[in-house]
Fold these 2 entries.
Entry 1:
Amino acid sequence: MMLWLLFLTLPCLGGSMPVSSDPSPGMELVGIVGGHNAPPGRWPWQVSLWILLGRDNEWQFVCGGSLIHPQWVLTAAHCIPGKYPVPQHFMVQVGQVRLSNSNNVQVAIVIRHPKYNLTQKGVGGADVALLKLQAPLIPSNLVNWVTLPPPLLTVPLGTRCWVTGWGRIAVKVPLPPPHHLQEVEVPIVPDEICRQQYRPINRIIKDDMLCAGSNGRDSCQGDSGGPLVCNWRGTWLQVGVVSWGIDCGLPNYPGVYARVTSYLSWIHHYVHSST
Ligand code: ARG
């Protein structure tokens, strides 16, 4: 009953630790979708989000997220189930490429954006949330925070952008053990093109959304909340938060991300620059 309920309420969450057989030789499935193993320390802001869920009260991997400050994680609002989230039921894994829930750090405060709509999920917009960690992290080669973009940044076409996570490598195909963090370069899709692509199925691409991806290159279920970063004049800036899509890696439906520049003032209301 509880599981069935969860399925209804969290259709986008990655669910429990993925279990899968090894891909057969010659058709190796590596992903996010179309990705490959990320080298340790390349994305030191990447975190995984774990929630105490279900009747067994087990820690389950649900989403990605990013460190934007020594004590703050940015993730997607739809990664946070329930009307009144309990911070003690959340944990964050930092500084590792292999998904695991040992040595995770505790969450002290959970804040979903007030305009996020629990029933509409990501498609309704404002799909952003902040988690305050119980203590600030010490930066290292493996743990660091990502830079937020300047308010007026519009990513120029052709900028190199990447999305990372432990989500599925194709629709309904979980990332196989050892659950190594995946990375894939994705092209930014101009707003107007993305709107036209989603119009036939009556999905509205709102101003606070940004599209990225191409045939066979995309984020997927379980990558939600994770960062879309672009290298802008030598600095990695987080421009998006994995939010929603239609299946994964389809040529005519790019991945949809919460646009970080739309939420900078909300973020800065809670998170004060650390440098
Ligand atoms: N909602 C999904 C999640 O919770 C993310 C889906 C992203 N889909 C995509 N095609 N880019 O993990």
Entry 2:
Amino acid sequence: MRALVTGGGGFIGSHLCDFLLAKGWTVVCMDNFITGSERNIAHLSSNPSFQLIRHDVSTFIDLESSVDCIFHFASPASPADFQRLPIQILKVGALGTHNTLGLAKAKKAKYLLASTSEVYGDPEVHPQPESYWGRVNPIGIRGVYDEAKRFAEAMTMAYHRIHAVETRIVRIFNTYGPRMRPDDGRIIPNLATQALTGQPMTVYGDGSQTRSFCHVSDLVEGIYRLMESNQNQPVNLGNPKEITVLELAQKIKDISGSKSKIVFHPLPADDPKRRCPDLTRARTLLHWEPRVPVEEGLRETLDYFRKVAQAGNVSSGLAGASR
Ligand code: UDP
């Protein structure tokens, strides 16, 4: 099997490349590295089953080789990016999705769209089932990502209905693990880096908002199962164990043994108050369940950030830490 992974140099994309290669697939990774990192795939450079193409998928994709499956993972995805790269996010969600769907149609390839729990916005239904249509502010600071992914889902379903492309849509909830950018502005990289370097740990708002954190190895297994299934409807993937942001900060502080203080910053606009996946569909259709306990995954992730910090790769300012 030959896969194209767009955003293959990113956090989730690079783990997906590893997973597919381990299954014996050939992988073409496409990335323009605006948020991805060549370090994430450096270990694959001499693998004959792996090919890297530097390309912005928001522009026409010219791929000579055949491809059986396309995994469209290219997009900046951190809330800090939403304010830094809003136009690129809208373009990759809209034009990048159109181009990759066109490629899937031309190559008669199966297609999987990386969508997001952000399509639910700041939800009024809890936990969120795939049947919930969401509550999104289209002109808010998060709207660029939410609406880009909502458009991408609509376009994916249109290609399925009109052109009979075999499509899949995964709605990814908060995911963490090694290879997250230490300065990407999301909560786990921020708090981990702050805890490890003795800086104040920034909790936004009063920390009562909730998230649920899925280890990237669990997520990638679910993505693979979804591609292998015959499910054209969206499927949530994430961890159902909901915790508050303040509890998470305390956990990271305890696990790292940090003496950092927890400090409170203003809550960014439109920050969802509660988020947790309803996994009924993933459980029944994919027989999938996340396995990695959050403490274990956090320990591994902290080790990763410790190594990155020792290698001197932590940028001096943490993106988003002063939002
Ligand atoms: N957050 C925080 N401190 C940080 C970064 C984020 O308290 O340094 C909060 C943020 O306001 C949100 C939650 O953590 O409520 C998760 O934020 P993240 O940026 O990781 O992703 P989101 O789930 O909002 O897409």
